[in-house]
Amino acid sequence: MPEPFSPAQLLYIGMEVAIAVTSVVGNVMVVWAVKINRSLRDTTFCFIVSLALADIAVGALVIPLAITISIGLQTHFYSCLLVACTVLVLTQSSILALLAIAVDRYLRVKIPTSYRRVVTPRRAGLAVVLCWTVAFIVGLTPMLGWNNLSGLRENGSISPDLVITCQFENVISMDYMVYFNFFGWVLPPLLLMLVIYAEIFYMIHKHLNKKKGAGGHSDPHKYYDKELNLAKSLALVLFLFAVSWLPLHILNCITLFCPHCQTPMFLLYIAILLTHGNSAVNPIVYAFRIKKFRTAFQKIWEQYFCCKDVSALEMQASERKEMPEPDPRQAAAPPPPLLLKDMPNNGPPKPQSPTPRHPLELGPKQALSILEQNSV
């Protein structure tokens, strides 16, 4: 008869279930939002979808397996190792997706006029495939032999039929986790992303300060304002990822470099919950920080959960998007309407100058149309 769960285990399992549900629902909404909103079908959001798919797998697959492991299930060594490697693959895919997003935003700011020519949808798709390929290679390396099987055989803590109590530290080598995974594939990408975002903010502020010094608010100013807001949101995603994953890697370093140090179980539980919770927070960041996601989430909620017809609202939004933004000088002095007094008795009505309705007819915007196309 299995032992009853302790209050700490029950609390841990309850929080894991809540995180799993939130992660799956939130990240499905992210993928759904990109599907229904054409303006989100962009290279940056292609990488965001890749990140969301990894987070969906964490909620639907990794967390249930983590709960199973926490119970102390007796399994075959390689079955338990495969479960642990699945976590590593998804973690690495998230890191590489965040790196791809950072590089994409850097190119948008560095080469705004030629960005569309350099970063094509085909190249973005190849980048996503490359990220997942590297993630599988890094995450499945323990399956090729860099694991704890030889150590367990030496100390006699594994049966001849290779059945063990399935726990992460029982099957994964701490040498691999610290030297290869953390020092090789987690810490360097995080530091590189930190440098990239610092450079992005520097370039954007330099452009904004240049425009302020020149006076006025032009379209390039609006473009870099949008880039700044989106860069802040994605940098926040990166910051939350680092905060969520670094504690567990620090505990791994303590386990390797100080084998006699005892790590309290509640600290380990907190570190594991932080890593899983990171998969649930990204959709919340998108909803509060990125207007296009917020609008798409609202439409999904109203149409599919509240059973409201939002086709009319979508048509109005589409029409507003197609209409050019009015020039402030024209808005301040609109052309007068045609009145009866403008129609003299002995002649035709006075001609009225046509109001430009197409973006190409708006002089100040025509030269900056490439920047507007690249804006997200």
Any idea what the CATH architecture is?
Up-down Bundle
Mean of all residue-level pLDDT scores: 83
From the 3D structure, determine the CATH topology. Answer: Rhopdopsin 7-helix transmembrane proteins
Summing up helix and strand content along with how strands pair, one would put the structural category as mainly alpha
Biased composition (Pro residues): 346-357
Protein name: Adenosine receptor A1
Organism: Gadus morhua
Region (Disordered): 319-376
Describe the protein:
The chain is mainly alpha-helical and 376 residues long. The protein has a single domain (7-290), classed as Up-down Bundle (Rhopdopsin 7-helix transmembrane proteins), CATH 1.20.1070. The protein is 72% helix and 2% strand. It has helices at residues 7-36, 43-70, 77-110, 115-118, 121-139, 149-154, 168-171, 174-214, 219-257, 265-289, 291-305, 311-322, 328-332, 363-366, 369-374, and strands spanning 74-76, 163-165. A two-stranded antiparallel ribbon has the order 1-2. The longest helix has 41 residues, at 174-214. The N and C termini lie far apart (58 Å).
Give the helix/strand layout:
Layout: H1 7-36, H2 43-70, E1 74-76, H3 77-110, H4 115-118, H5 121-139, H6 149-154, E2 163-165, H7 168-171, H8 174-214, H9 219-257, H10 265-289, H11 291-305, H12 311-322, H13 328-332, H14 363-366, H15 369-374
Antiparallel strand pairs: 1-2
Helix pairs in contact: 1-2, 1-10, 1-11, 2-3, 2-5, 2-10, 3-5, 3-8, 3-9, 8-9, 9-10, 10-11
